[in-house]
Amino acid sequence: MSITKKQYLFLAMLVLVSFLLIGCINKQVTNDGSKEQQGRVMINNHKRVIEFVTVPQRVVTLNQHATEIMLALGLSDKIVGAAHMDGEIQAEYKEQYNKIQVLSDRYPSKDTLLAVKPDFIYGYNDAFEDKWIGTVDVLEKQNIKSYITQGGLKEHATVQEVYNDINNIGKIFHVEAKAQDLIKNIKNEIQLVKEKTDIIDKRVKFMVIDAAAGNQVLIAGRSLESDLIRLAGGDNVFGNLEKSWGKTDWQEIIRRNPEVIVINEHAASSAQETIQMLVKNPALSEVEAIKKRRFVIFSFNDMNGGIRSGKTVQWLAKAFYPQLFQ
Fold it and tell me: What range(s) does the Fe/B12 periplasmic-binding domain occupy (predicted)?
């Protein structure tokens, strides 16, 4: 039987409509949010590639910067537990944070962690040790995925690692637009500082003391913290260190003569005690920063990077160059 021209055109149109309908159905599945269909994400982290087929639903954040990033991205409903909070949560997120279960002042025990049945853990690298919550490989065998803050993994870390973390968390939870907005806000805060400090002829010379005992001083080299201070208009007198952290002695500090000393405040080291030790040491009396009492206390939350990074750069710049912000 021969097919007329009209019949041929009708069949062709029928096939075309069928393809269009299939396309619309497929598009609807993708856009309407079957997380199983749209959720496959590959993330590079800690010398491994993590595959996320679905969006994590039961998250434990193990450091304050991780908790605050999740809250800033509108993901409070995903958090089943938080830990290792080193200070006050950012004011705009307090109401959300108060609804979250705090598992521990420091890192939780393995039993406490597993009791909340997490499917995703996000925090600093030192948490993922066997003495704390276990290694990433052990957690993976328990069907718990993990993400380690990049600033704690990479030597010579910069603020770019903060942007990478926010971007990666945005991808994992399918909130890329919010992540990009957050990154943009931090960059804008830093740019406002740059516009003021670009006119400076002589940048402030600083050093960072993390801890001190006897004649041994733990200092920052090319670390994330040092990069934030650099963005505020400072030059690290120990910027030639190849590692993020290193040790020196008082004699070398005298020789390099910093104009400002940034002192880290955390559970293992009191900044005020460190300051008292510095000012009471007669051998250090001619160090410029000590002679003029130019000390800046850096909290653990500020040094770790996160949503605070832009504001941290701003208040550091005000401490270094108050005349620019009058």
Answer: 58-326
